[in-house]
Structures are given as structure tokens and as C-alpha cells.
Amino acid sequence: SSRPPAPLRQRSNRIASPSIVRRNAYSANYPRLERDMDNRNGWERTNSALTGTTHRPPGSFVDQANVTNESIHREFDAEWPACWDRAAALLEWDQPYETILEDDNPPFYRWFTGGELNASYNCIDRHLETGRKTHAAIRWEGKQGERETYTYQDLAVEVNELAAALQGLGVGADDIVTIYLPMIPELPIAMLACARIGAPHSVVFAGFSADALATRMAAADSEFLITCDGYYRRGDAFNQKSKVDNACLSLDHDVRTVVVDRLGEDLPHVLGDDEWDYHDLQQRYAGERVDPVSRDAEDMLFLMYTSGTTGEPKGVVHTTGGYLAHVAWTTHAVLDVKPEDTYWCAADIGWITGHSYIVYGPLALGTTTVMYEGSPDYPDRDRLWEIVDRNAVDVFYTAPTAIRAFMKWGEEYPGRHDLSSLRLLGTVGEPISPRPWAWYRDHVGDGECPVVDTWWQTETGAVMLSTLPGVDEMKPGAAGPPLPGTDVRIVDANGREVDPGETGYLTLASPWPGMARTLYDGDDRFRSEYWNRFSDAEAGEWRYFSGDTATIDEDGYVTVLGRVDDVINVAGRRLSTMEIEGAVTDVDGVAETAVVGRSSECDGTEIYVYVSTERSVDADGAVRDAIVENVESAIGPFARPSEIVFTPELPKTRSGKIMRRLLEDVANGEELGDTSALRNPEIVGEIQTERGDH
Ligand code: 6R9
């Protein structure tokens, strides 16, 4: 049966104002907006969405989908905020909440107030009572080809033991525990053990350097750390503990550390004072049980550091009730996960996607979540498809950067395996253009699987823009309409909604349960990073600014174009250009630097560094090596620059500001606009020569 997509919010009939596209004017506050209007990739994506190549999910999918109610968008709008009861109903509350939303002190919103619950109880214990004791909770695929299955009962035992051990080490409610582990089962176990005793966790991606770990532990005043001796990468053993030792040396407080022995004989290590072996602790606390601590809905569940517009990472605060309700609901409604499914999100738990959609969402629903430690091309390029095949994965969720790599490698790799178990595919992290979208559906999804393109952020906690696969039609290139109950508005620089097809800033006009409550660094920074730009506090209008630009089409489908701030997204990892610049500037002989992203449809975004050296210093290989080394040690190997360009000077405005946008256009080989605002316009030609353009 064919049905039109449900009409979204009523849009006012504005008279389209003649829009004058200023070509590459490097002047406005957020100049990338103008540039994006001309950006070819963006135009192609937008155009494809606008010309309406829509795809209807197959009837066989819709027949079994969790959410098929065609009027859900309208119902949620009409019932807002009470509609979010449906999300909260997916959880078990120790104490029912009294109020759904308290909005008397914006932008500090409070959800499900008066309610109490425990996240580890919701992700583990309650499933034991519903006959799922022996149901697989986690299927782990290790780098060395190891495989382990944790049933919900196994998970309960391990989480309880570790929770008891952490209490034994002195961890109390509200103490922040840093977790610095690769993709091994101890990582989700540690998160859930913290949640059980009411200690917020702060997971730091294992690829981060010692400095980056130390910055995050210092900012959070975190006195407890769970880490490991090392991990394997392409068969080689890497030492993680030495990074930890370095990080702890630079902290001015003591740290109690639990160390998982991941490498055994491959990396013997000695424990110092205040260090405990994870497996020893496990034995010492064998069989112990810890009652889950009832947490207020608004109590912090975890802290996650992410990159912002300055070099200082931001500590995003997520709460227990709203966050868990939102991730459980979106895992159910968007990813269509069912308890009997085997579900795989091929992200790293060290980032928000892994928190929400490897750990909390799927476990809250009692499903089987696959956890993969390795890389997609080791031992061969069919590794992921082999895992899908062997585990009969039903739902698979990954990033466009991975899909672009699969495309380059060729369809023969997925073709080697039986992928017929797959029912739904998802993507997150970057825009996905129609071509890789279609390739994914055709070669992984056998031309049948719906593909959900989900837009969200560390700060939103859970998905905000996506089609509901049992309800909405898909438009490749567009993430989709706002999720029911969310209010995405694309606005111009003055906060007025743009007309369909025009580019604007992606803002959110009403609060949502999974939203960050504040930044650990302080409420002021929370206000200034997200709320000041588009809110009118006096008029009582509060708007969250995402940092992204987007377009919206006549049907209310949103195409996200990319960031307008100094955040770049490299292989799905969020980095701050300022943080990288800080690491480059630290190198002896570097006078000035500007870091920008270079994007291509094929490779996604790469890190491009412009450097001018001090006069007495030769811009030679030694400086280049030192820059790479310093970036790796300040942030991590994943932040390694792809290209370093030396230039006698950086292009600057008359007021002395480096013109990063111009440098970005140079890096991207784009036609340059008006450079008359430059104090040193001649430098642009020199940089292009250095790059070999002319
Ligand atoms: C979940 C996650 C957030 C930024 C976000 C945007 C980009 C994420 C996207 C997308 C286009 C999508 N982004 N999903 N862009 N389409 N479906 O990735 O969180 O690491 O905080 O990054 O990622 O630019 O602002 P995070």
C-alpha cells in the first residue's frame, strides 16, 4: 500500500525573499554558511533530496517494525512533552517520576523529575527476571580472533563483582571514575559497575594520548581509573599502561588504578602502589552482590569529553533518566531493535555512539549486542561481513567513513558472505551522500534493507533526526525529519527559519530528554557554547545551536551539511582544529599555524596543517616530523595530519585574524572568492604554489 509521508509541522507560508548568494565572502561571523551554499557536494546531496528520489521501506520490514503508527509525528507534536512518557515507559523506575519536564530555568531543563532508577538494573537485572538469564547480552569478537559470549547472568555476576571491588577501593556515589580501555568486555562491564553504585564514568577513547588522558582526568578531578596493560593492533602488542603512568605523573592528585591484564605473557607488567589487578579483584570479590543504588533521574550517569570550539575539551554531562529513556526509545523506534535480535553497532565505546548504541540502548532493551575489537580490514577486508554472517546479525549500524572504505574495496567482500540475516542498516557520524547510501543498501542490505541516516551529537545523547523505518519514506542524502517529539529548525543568521532548499544553521527549538544538562566545566560555558547564539532570553525563547549547517526540503526532510565551528570530523571522530593547532604551535621553530579540514567524497575529511616557521628555522623534514610526533602525543595517532604545508606567512585580515576559511578553500582546491579583505593577499598564491596547484 502506498502512502505519502506524514506531513510534519505546519510551515508558515513565507514569501521567499530573493536570496543573493555571496560567493565566498570571507567576512561574516559564520562564513562557511555562504560557502556551503556553493559547495558542490552539499548541492548534490541537497538536490538529490529535493528532486525526491524517495524509497519506501519494503512491506516485509514494515510488517514487523516496532513503530508503524503513521500518525506518530502528529501525535507526539500534539502531546508534547507528555509524548516522552512512551520513552520512559521502556524503563523500570524504582520511584515513578512526578513531572515530565521542568523548564523554569532554561537552558537547564530537568526531565522526569522525582523519578528514581538505576541504569545497571535497567540494563541487566530486570532481564534476569523475564527469563533472559541465559540470553546472550554481549557477543565479543576480539582482535586475535577470540570470541566470548556473556549472557545476562554472566554480565550480572561480573558487574556485581566489579561494583563491589570499586566500593572496596573507596569509590562512592558521585565519584568520577575514568575508564581508559579498548574494545574489550571489561569496558561495558566497568561502565555498568559504575552506574550500579552511582559513580559517574568518564570513558576516554583508548587511542587518546597520555596528555589527552591527563587533561580529561584533571578537568574531572577523577581519582579512580580503570585501564589495561595494553592491546593488540594488527597482531602487535601496544603498551597502554605506559601512557597511563605518564598521565598520572602530570596529575596533582593521587589516582587509584585498576589494571586489566589484556596481553598476558605478551606484556608482563608490575603493579605499583595504588594499583590493582582487575582479575585479582574479581577473585577477591567473587560472588559478591551489590544492590543497585537508586539514582535520581537527574543524577549524572556519565561525563563524556568532546571537542569544542576551543582547545579545551568539553565535559558533557548526561543524566540517568532522560538519557536512558531517549537511547532506549531510539534503539527501539529508529534502529528497530527487538530483544531477540543480534544487533551490531560497529563503533568504539570510547565515543558517544558506542555509549548510547553499543551499551545503554541495546542492553536496556535486553537484546544481544555485538562488540568488535578489531579493524574492518584485518585479517581481510571481509572481516565485518564474516562477523555478520557468523552471528546472524539483524541490525547493523556504522559510519559513512567505513561505508566509503567498503565501496573502495569493492562489492566482492560483502559478496563472499551470507548477509541475509540483515533487516535494517544505519549510519551516523557524518553526512552520507546518495551514492554510498545506495551502495550500502544494495551490497550489504541486498537492495532490500531500509537505511536510516541518523543525525545526533555527543550533546544530544541520542538520535534527533532520522526516518522512522516503519513509518517514513527514505531520501538518500537527507537524514530525515526530526524525530517525533524533537523540534529541529533550520534558521538564518537572525534566527528566522529559512525557506526549503536554503542553507541555514541547525538549531533545536525545544528540549529533549537525552540532552546534555550542562558542561562539567561550568554552566557559563554551556550557555555560551550552545545557547547564546540563537536564544532570546528576554523573550523567553531558547534555541540550542548544534554547530552544524543544514537545508530542509518541502517535506521537512533535513540534509545536514557540516560544521560551521572549529570542529572537524575525521573518520567519524570529532576533533577540534584549535586543539591540533595547540599541539603544532608547541613544536620548536613553529611561529604560527592554522589547521583545517580537507574533504572529499571518497575519503571524508583529512587534517591539513599550514605552518609558518620562525625566520631562523628551516622548514624542513625535522620540523615536519616533530609536528606529527607532537600531535600524536598531545591527542593521539588518529589525529595525525595528512598534509603539512609550509608557508612564509598565513593569510590574515587587516585586524590580524588568520583566515581559516580561505585556507580551507585552498586545501579543498576550491575556487577562491574575494581576498581583498586580506592584509597580505599575495601569500595565497605562494601557498598554492607550495601545494603544487600552479
Ligand atoms: C553521534 C556523533 C557530532 C557531529 C554533528 C555532525 C556530525 C553526526 C551525522 C552528522 C551528518 C549525520 N554528524 N551524524 N552529520 N549526518 N547523520 O557523531 O556525535 O561525535 O559528537 O559528532 O557529527 O557534524 O555535529 P559527535
**Low confidence ranges:** 1-32, 34-51
Number of strands: 29
Q: Which bin fits the share of residues in helices?
A: 25-40%
What do the pLDDT scores average to?
89
Termini gap: 57 Å
Tell me the strand percentage band.
15-25%
- Structural class comes to alpha/beta
Shape estimate: globular
Radius of gyration: 25 Å
**Spatial order of the strands forming the largest sheet:** 5-4-17-16-18-19-20
Q: What ions, cofactors and ligands are bound?
A: ligand 6R9
Describe the main β-sheet briefly.
7 strands, mixed
Number of helices: 22
GO molecular function, one term: 3-hydroxypropionyl-CoA synthetase activity
EC number: 6.2.1.1
Protein name: Acetate--CoA ligase
Family: Belongs to the ATP-dependent AMP-binding enzyme family.
How would you characterize this protein structure?
With 694 residues, the protein is an alpha/beta fold. The chain is built from 22 helices and 29 strands. A seven-stranded mixed β-sheet has the order 5-4-17-16-18-19-20, with helices on both faces. β27 (590-600) and β28 form a beta hairpin. α6 crosses α7 (152-168) and α6 (119-128) crosses α8. The protein is globular, with a radius of gyration of 25 Å. The termini are far apart. The model is unreliable at 1-32 and 34-51 (pLDDT under 50). Residues 306, 351-353, 428-431, 453-458, 479, 546-548, 560, 562-563, 569, 574 line the site of ligand 6R9. Residues 71-123 form the Acetyl-coenzyme A synthetase N-terminal domain. It is an enzyme of class 6 (ligase). This is Acetate--CoA ligase.
